Amino acid sequence: MAIIITDECINCGACEPECPNTAIYEGADDWRYKDGTSLDGKLVLPNGKSVDADEAQEPISDEIYYIVPDKCTECVGFHEEPQCAAVCPVDCCVPDDDHVEEKEVLLGKQKFMHPED
Known about the structure:
Strand content: 5-15%
Largest sheet: 2 strands, antiparallel
Distance between the termini: 21 Å
Strand order of the largest sheet: 1-6
Number of strands: 6
Structural class: alpha+beta
Helix content: 10-25%
Order of helices and strands: EEEEEHEH
C-alpha cells in the first residue's frame, strides 16, 4: 500500500527529505521515476507499466506535497515504519486505500528501484 498526503497538509516539507525513494514532491513540481533511484531510460515497472525513467511526469497535486504511488514502498526495505508519517506534524501522511500492496510487493519495488541495497 502506498501512503497518501491528505489535504490537511500544511506544506511544511518535513516529509520530503525523509523518503528513501524520493517519492514525495512539492505541489506543482514535476517528478521522474529516476529521481533518487537507480532507474534509467525506458523500462517496465514490476507492476507491468512501461515508463521512461528520465521523462518528466505531471504533478499529482498543484497545491500540496504529494507521493507518487509507483515509487512509494512505505519505507519497506529501509525502515520499520513510513518515515513521512513519522515526521508529519499534522498526521496527514496516511495509508492510500486506492493503492494496497502486500509487504512482498513493496519489498520487490524497493529492490527494483535500489538493486544495490
